Amino acid sequence: MQRMQHAQWGMNPLFGPEPRSSPMVVIEDKDKRQVDLTFDLKSEDCTTHFSLRGRVTNVFPVMSDMLSSLPRDPRSLNDTKDLVAKLYWPEEMRRSKPDILKEVYKITDGEREGMTAEERQQVAGHVPEMVWFHKFEETSTANIRRALGIGDAERGSRVFYVIVFRKLRPITDLSGDQFLNAWWHTVFCHRILWIYSIRHRDISPTNLMFYETSSGLIIGVLNDYDLSSTRDTPTGNERTGTVPFMAMELLTKAALEGKAEHLYRHDAESFIWVLTWVCLRYEKGRLIEDRPLDRWLKVSIIRCREKKHDFMGDGRFNAQPTSSHQASWETVQSCLTTIALFYAHNPRPLLADGEVFRTWLEVHLPNS
Q: Per the record, which residues fall in region Disordered (predicted)?
């Protein structure tokens, strides 16, 4: 094993282990273009995740002469020149993120029968701009399984991707009306995508982003389609999401066993939990000390549901938002009351998606 080269240890030869703060790689893509990528590994904007399991998602600021020379996407209002690269290992059997985004872009272009101009406007500019991607076919973990003679080698196998996006900022950087308006942008964008068969399935603070236009407008963006699917994808009962923000109905034993279908109201509830979370824990874009709800991140899935249930009872009436989010708290309380009334019913009412959107979310829109 001491004689094994880096590639034999599973490292991609393009990404050498030399300790440099700004390594550059050149990748020949499927169009035979030489794409240069210089990663900034020392930036505060890096997001790293090291694990032997899962997607192992890492995000780095990146510079590229080749990609910067490409024509800008006319659909996007995000005129920043800054780029970020996402490196990760998704499951091969799932529909890929680039494929999902291509379907999303068809919706932003109005390429859906019966789509109105208003619906298109609620999506256009509110989704991430993918500049380039590359799939490293040779990295499929199914290759190792086939070499070992393991049956069903493709099941659960992963493959390495690099995707480059126009840079966005986290919605948690915002406060006051700017934050609430950006949050509403993502709510409406999600609703239209759901109508036209795109299922996001992972509404969390890290997946709600924004950018500022040259004229100073703040535009909310529904980001990160890693766990997304289309309506005809056979993953409706698969539990996906970030636990503290998942609907309480999905934090049950039955849901963990795959016996609960992921519905629109589950994502709608997640939006409300995100709104609550940010208002209680962020002050002018920064996490506060002694912040509430920390235990939700640390306990088991079942215990997290119990804590959220307790919060829906007395906890929400005792909670105090930070001063920079005080203006949003009335919306939070109204939305939470709607969810509490829903869970108080036994059996729970069967609600159409449109009714959920109107009564759980839209009715709480200021001046609605």
A: 1-22
First vs last Cα of the chain: how many Å apart?
Answer: 67
SS (H, E, C) the chain: CCCCCHHHHCCCCCCCCCCCCCCEEEEECCCCCEEEEEECCCCCCCECCCCCCCCCCEEEEEECHHHHCCCCCCCCCCCCCCEEEEEECCECCCCCHHHHHHHHHHHHCCCCCCCCHHHHHHHCCCCCCEEEEEEEHHHCCHHHHHHCCCCCCCCCCECEEEEEEECCEEHHHCCHHHHHHHHHHHHHHHHHHHHCCEECCCCCHHHEEEEECCCCCEEEEECCCCCCEECCCCCCCCCCCCHHHCCHHHCCHHHHCCCCCCCHHHHHHHHHHHHHHHHHHEECCEECCCCCCHHHHCCCHHHHHHHHHHHHHHHHHHCCCCHHHHHHHHHHHHHHHHHHHHHHCCCCCCCCHHHHHHHHHHHHCCCC
Which tokens belong to 120? Answer: 């298109």
The residue-averaged pLDDT of 42-63 equals 85
Please give the pLDDT value at position 141. Answer: 84
317: which 2 tokens? 């009436």
Nearest to 76 by CA among 193, 230, 214, 271: 214
224: left (phi over 0), alpha (psi -120 to 50) or beta: left
Q: What integer is the mean pLDDT of 162-173?
A: 97
Q: Where do the domains of the chain lie?
A: 1-125+129-167, 168-368
- How confident is the model at residue 54, as a pLDDT? 77
Q: Which is more confidently placed, 153 or 332?
A: 332
Give the Cβ contact number of residue 299 at 10 Å: 14
Q: pTM, whole model, 2 decimals?
A: 0.90
Q: Tell me phi and psi for residue 260, to 5 degrees.
A: -125, 125
Q: Quick one: pLDDT at residue 19? A: 62
Given the candidates 3.50.80.10, 3.40.190.80, 1.10.3210.10, 1.10.510.10, the CATH classification of the domain at 168-368 is 1.10.510.10
